[in-house]
């Protein structure tokens, strides 16, 4: 889909449909000459109230270049923000592309051009690559009608929308396609395309380094593991010594291992690399938007399988940090691969660490599918991450991580156990990571509840959401 910006009066815009937003408690904007009377009439009749996601279509008279006018409800004006605009645009795109609209124009009457463009790009994404006959249709072009001053916003929106769809595409690939090796190949290709350095550590190299915790998880799979490392360096020497590390869980399929998961719903575990994919999407955007600090992404990619070579409950592994871990449950594998990547990130010189992982079912119990669970050992970094998430409309909730939780991870035979019992499961998982982050300022995002949509929304297809890509990009840009 190509995206363009035009500054034209409504009647001169060429498109299959021109969309305008109308609020519940507000008359049509005065700039809509020629149609505002119809819009006011439509509302007066009660046929259209302006509620969120409501839609009405009218064919336009010959004086207009566009074929149809579409009104979308924006809800209450005082509740409306960039997130509301992103959704409203997405909703119109998803509804109208199904009606055969190929060129859609959106009339932006005061509002965030970046969010509007993101909404269109996200709404146009369909996970139908493997359907040989699909009735899903897509837009060919999106035109934003706004003043020339919206140009920078349009550019940013394109970069962020495309980065998020890049992530969604990776997550949506089935695990027979998306192996650790393919994820590494896609990362390498992306890095080459946007001009980033990419290095892949293979299994012999990881063994040589002593990444016993990561390798214990991957040993049950016929697919070799990969540790993907992508580096962004600012063109000008940075003014601080800060170096941001982005660590993302890349389990391309999680059977649970010998502590196997129930069959029901196991197919969803192809999205267990969504944290890693989010980091790759963020790096793609970061390469184009060029923040002023260095950023390094690390994605440990493995497959968690059962088999005669698989790790057993009770196995004790030695992590890269030197700490020993008793693996009481092979399904708590995410933390085992992340800690070796965290230690390696510290060795690469990262001064601040942020990780994203579909880490626990417990975070879904706690926060549902609405908020990301956020954990930290450092309030200043937490404030930066929460501010970035808020600005990007990615809902996030700060969870506790008191030292009282430490005893949950006690092991009789090793330094740490990899599980902490039934209660507070998202917290004990985060605490496990914290033990390896040590004094490095670190924030952990548990995205198990937010990285996948079990049902489509009016503005987003079913499947991967691409959550956290925008937050991490903004975190780097606003540093
Ligand atoms: N990948 C899962 C977490 C998960 C569960 C993500 C549901 C998305 C939806 C993770 O590896 C896992 O299995 N965690 C276990 C930990 C337990 C064994 C302590 C869990 O949450 O049940
Ligand atoms: Zn698991
Ligand atoms: Zn997992």
Describe this protein with a few key phrases.
479 residues; alpha/beta; Leucine Aminopeptidase, subunit E, domain 1; Aminopeptidase; 6-stranded mixed beta sheet
Tell me what the structure shows.
This protein has 479 residues and is of the alpha/beta class. 33% of the residues lie in helices and 20% in strands. It has 13 helices and 20 strands. The strands form 4 sheets. Strands 7, 8, 9, 10, 11, 14, 15, 16 and 18 form a 9-stranded mixed sheet that branches. The chain is elongated. The site of one zinc ion has 4 residues, from loops. Residues 251, 254, 272, 333-334 line the site of one zinc ion (ZN).
Write the layout of secondary structure elements.
Layout: E1 2-6, E2 17-22, H1 36-44, E3 55-59, E4 68-73, H2 82-98, E5 103-107, H3 113-123, E6 141-145, H4 151-172, H5 180-194, E7 197-201, H6 203-209, H7 212-218, E8 226-232, E9 244-248, E10 250-254, H8 274-289, E11 295-304, E12 316-318, E13 324-326, H9 334-347, E14 352-357, H10 361-367, E15 372-376, H11 379-391, E16 396-398, E17 416-417, H12 425-437, E18 442-446, E19 452-453, E20 463-464, H13 469-477
Parallel strand pairs: 1-6, 2-4, 2-5, 5-6, 9-11, 9-14, 10-11, 13-17, 14-18, 15-16
Antiparallel strand pairs: 3-4, 7-8, 8-11, 12-13, 15-18, 19-20
Helix pairs in contact: 2-3, 3-4, 4-8, 5-8, 7-9, 8-13, 9-12, 11-13
The structure holds ligand BES and zinc ion (ZN) (2 copies).
The site of one zinc ion has 5 residues, from strand 10.
